[in-house]
Amino acid sequence: MAHANRPRRQHLHEQGLDTTIVIIPDAFCRPEHYDLPVTSRRALGADIVIVVQNPSTRLMGASAAGVPAGLYDDTANARVVVEGLVRDGRSVLVVAHSYGALVASECVKGLGREGLMGVQPGGVVRMVLIAGIVPLEGQSLNEAVNGRLGIGPPDDVVGGFMYHKQEKLAARFYSSLPACRSLEHAGATNTEQSVRSFEERLRYAGYRGIPVTYMVTTADQMVPVEL
């Protein structure tokens, strides 16, 4: 039911913000996983929306040569993007999904807008953690979740990458969709994730120094509310 007194949506430019949104994906998720929210956000007036590719998430068809990337590789990769925007004077909103919260927390070190006031105009203004997993400093994702992720243990580990069957990915990532559509999405946007990314420990708790909005997803089939 529509409400006559509902406030009009404001575009970012109407709010006086020159804001770039950087999305840091969940484990097992390719950037295409976020096509719908990216399109929606752009329609509402976001000037720039960037979805980073975590190196620890294997690209479709990529070879398994070398040591798989881990959390620290993901952090370095995301930081190049975020720091580059900050140096360009942009206000940056970092949106992180589940595992992406670890990457976000690490990569924003020294880039908070408040800490950069008087030094340069840009900075990270906020982190939005969607069903984010936020370990303490010195904890890995595995230690923080302690086996409580809804997807359960991987069906196989090959070449340092965790593999889950598409049916399981579909049921956990797309639980609100009909089975045929969830399988289609899982096949197109989900892939394998490196073991290292779940084992490397958080070195910097960025959520302590930058404003955070935490979105609790009570119907989520992957991350229990207590996490």
TrEMBL record:
It comes from the Eukaryota. Gene3D superfamilies: alpha/beta hydrolase. Signal peptide: none annotated. It holds the Pfam family Abhydrolase_6. Residues 21-224 form the AB hydrolase-1 domain. This is AB hydrolase-1 domain-containing protein. It comes from Colletotrichum salicis.
